[in-house]
Amino acid sequence: MKYVLGALIGGVVGYLVLYRLIGCSTGACPITANPYISVIYGIIMGLLVAGSA
Q: What is the pLDDT of residues 39-50, one digit of tens each?
């Protein structure tokens, strides 16, 4: 259950923070230029944090 919650929170944070807030306006940033990559990166980070908690 904590992994699912971590993945959901990580996906939301990845989209809202990495893509919307920090997003690269020139498109040269590989993680923040694409919303799908930002969400996947957020999910991975959420799973890692949930696994270590």
A: 888 888 888 888
Torsion on CA atoms 23, 24, 29, 34, rounded to nearest 10:
50
pTM above 0.85, yes or no: no
Is 2 buried (19+), middle (13-18) or exposed (0-12) by CB count in 10 A? exposed
CB 24 within 8 A of CB 33: yes
Q: What is the dihedral of CA 6, 8, 14, 20, to 10 degrees?
A: -150
Q: What percent helix, strand, coil does the chain show, rounded to 5?
A: 70, 0, 30
The pLDDT of residue 24: 67
